[in-house]
Amino acid sequence: MSDRLTQLASHLNYPRGLLAGQVAIITGAGQGIGAECARLFANEGAKVVVSDIDGVKAEEVAKRIREGGGEALAVQGDLLKDEAIGELVEKAVGWGGKVNVLVNNAGFTWDGVIHKVCLSLIFVSVVVVVVVVVFWREGEGAVVLGGGVGGRC
Ligand SMILES: NC(=O)c1ccc[n+]([C@@H]2O[C@H](COP(=O)([O-])OP(=O)(O)OC[C@H]3O[C@@H](n4cnc5c(N)ncnc54)[C@H](O)[C@@H]3O)[C@@H](O)[C@H]2O)c1
C-alpha cells in the first residue's frame, strides 16, 4: 500500500459506512428520535441494539432495519429498573461482542417532563455507568445523551 493509502486507510470505509464494525445501543428506539437514530446508525454499518420499554415497537424497528440489509437486535426492558439495564448490556455484548456507542435517549417526551425528570436522570446515569464499564474493558467508546427542557429540576 502506498504511504498515502496507508494514511487514509481508516477513512476509506465507503460503502461499508462510517460506523462499520461498531456496536451501538440506542435506548428508547421504539419510536421517534431513537428509532430514527437506529435507522441512521444501521445505514452507516453499525450493529444496532434497539432498546425500548415497548417490545413490539422495538421489534418492528429492528425488523425494518434487518429487511433493509442492516443488523439489529430488539431488547425490551424498562430502564427505570436496574435489572433491565444489566440485561440490556449483557444481551448487547452477547450479540455484538462489544459496545462502542450508547445513545441514551429513552424517556417519554409528553410525560410531564418537569416532575418526572429526577427519575429520568437517575436511569440515564445508571445506563451510562454500566456501559462505561464495558467501554473501559474495550478501551474506548462514545456516549450520546439526549436532553430536554426538564433538565433544570
Ligand atoms: N421530541 C422533542 O421535541 C424532544 C425535546 C427535548 C427532549 N426530548 C427527549 O428526547 C428523547 C426522545 O424524544 P422523542 O420525541 O423521540 O420521544 P418519544 O416519546 O417519541 O419516544 C421515546 C421512546 O422511549 C421509550 N421509553 C420511555 N421510557 C422508557 C423506559 N423507562 N425504558 C425504556 N424505554 C423507554 C418509549 O417507549 C419511546 O419509544 C426523550 O428522552 C425526550 O424526553 C425530545
Notes on the structure:
The chain has 153 residues and is of the alpha/beta class. It is built from five helices and five strands. Helix 2 links the parallel strand 1 and strand 2. Helix 2 packs parallel to helix 3 and helix 4 runs parallel beside helix 5. Helix content is 47%, strand content 16%. It has a single domain, classed as Rossmann fold (3-Layer(aba) Sandwich). A five-stranded parallel beta sheet has the order 3-2-1-4-5, sandwiched between helices. It binds nicotinamide-adenine-dinucleotide. Nicotinamide-adenine-dinucleotide binds next to helix 2.
Distance between the termini: 56 Å
- For CATH, the homologous superfamily is named as NAD(P)-binding Rossmann-like Domain
What's the overall geometry? globular
CATH topology: Rossmann fold
Main sheet overview: 5 strands, parallel
Low-confidence parts, pLDDT < 50 over ≥5 residues? 149-153
**Number of strand segments:** 5
CATH class: Alpha Beta
Beta-strand content bin? 15-25%
Structural class: alpha/beta
Provide the list of bound ligands, each named once: nicotinamide-adenine-dinucleotide
So, CATH architecture? 3-Layer(aba) Sandwich
Radius of gyration: 16 Å
Order of helices and strands: HEHEHEHEHE
Tell me the number of helical segments per DSSP (H or I, 4 or more residues long). Answer: 5
Mean pLDDT: 84
Helix content: 40-55%
Number of domains: 1
